Amino acid sequence: MKLLVCGGAGFIGSNFARLRAGEGDEVVVLDKLTYAGRRENLADVEHEFVHAGIEDPAAVAAAMDGADAVVNFAAETHVDRSITEPDAFIRTHAQGTFVLLEAARQRGLRFLQVSTDEVYGSIPEGSFTERSPLAPSSPYSATKAGADLLVASYLHTYGLETLICRGSNNYGPYQYPEKLVPLMILNALHGDPLPVYGDGMQVRNWLYVEDFGRGIGHVLEHGAPGEAYNVGGPDECPNIEVVRRIIELTGAGEELIEHVTDRPGHDRRYSLGSEKVRALGWQPQVRFADGLERTVQWYRDNVAWWEPIRSGAYREYYTRQYGRALG
Ligand code: NAD
Ligand code: DAU
Question: Between vectors from CA 162 to CA 77 and to CA 226, what angle results, nearest 5°?
Answer without folding.
Answer: 110
